[in-house]
Amino acid sequence: MSIEVSNDKGCLYVVATPIGNLGDMSRRAIEVLSDADLVLAEDTRHSGRLLRHLGIERPLLALHEHNERERLAGILERLAQGQRIALVSDAGTPLISDPGYPLVRACHEAGYGVSPIPGPSALIAALCVSGLPTDQFEFRGFVPRRESTRHSLFETAARANATQVLYESSHRIVETLGEMRAFFGAERQLTLCRELTKLHETVRMGSLDELTEWVRSDPNQRKGEFVLVVAGAPAPESPQDDVLDPVLRVLLEEGLPVRQAAGIAARLVGGKKNQAYQRAIQIRQE
Ligand code: SAM
Predict the structure, then answer these.
(1) E strands, 42-93, where?
(2) Mutation test of ligand 1: which of 226, 228, 229, 230 has the most ligand atoms closer than 8 Å to its C-beta?
(3) Average per-residue pLDDT in the chain?
(4) Is 92 a pocket residue for ligand 1 (Cβ < 6 Å)?
(5) Which of 9, 163, 168, 240 has its CA 20 to 30 A from that of 219?
(6) pTM
(7) For ligand 1, is residue 93 a contact (CB within 6 Å)?
(8) Is 130 a pocket residue for ligand 1 (Cβ < 6 Å)?
(9) Segment 191-203, tens digit of pLDDT
């Protein structure tokens, strides 16, 4: 099987690398890295070890959150010379809670190609084994360190109907779960994904109450890297007949036409106008 690598010059390749298991390194990622004029890495020592393991010897340059803006001009200059540049992070997909966004943006603005070499990401790996709905989800990145930011994020996330995905490290997992229980409620379902693709991989679903207690009582479950996948808030129920009906009855008794009564009732109760209209017709017929 042949693997196609674009021969376009002056291109930035955004290359995903394993999140634990080196077997997840794709053949295409290996080819692109082997072919790159320069590999931009969050931590050159870390990525240097990966490249050596793969038998790849390419120049490495550090690109991390503290220097990525000042590096831009030099990198764009290399792209202008037609170089192929690969961007990797320590693990997973660059830009997903990792550096690279300013560079990708600058490449677009300067008219250079940006090409994905897709592969592992803890976000998608966790979501697809979570057992929670995947049709709509919101990725919240790392649980913020600052208390006020964290609490306002939890408040918003707890109200959202889509599945919520958060990253957390081992240092704070117990405190984070305890706080989430307070904001999301003890019964909210959560899937805790720990050390995915590694020796101690754990995927466990339960209520926030159960999982908080489980992690609190077993120190082994606090080690490593975590993705927390939380069930969305249940969709608001449509107004029940027992709320809608009395409002409609009063309005109809006051002599309002069916359509007008339905419109006012829907606004008061918070439901769909058509539903209130159908119900109003039934009440009038009774
Ligand atoms: N760019 C990476 C990606 O695509 O997933 C994420 C990088 S972010 C700096 C690191 C965080 O991702 C960890 O603190 C953890 O929350 C999550 N993570 C990374 N690898 C993981 C793994 N093997 N199992 C569970 N979570 C992981």
Answers:
(1) 60-62, 84-88
(2) 226
(3) 93
(4) yes
(5) 163
(6) 0.83
(7) yes
(8) no
(9) 999 999 999 999 9
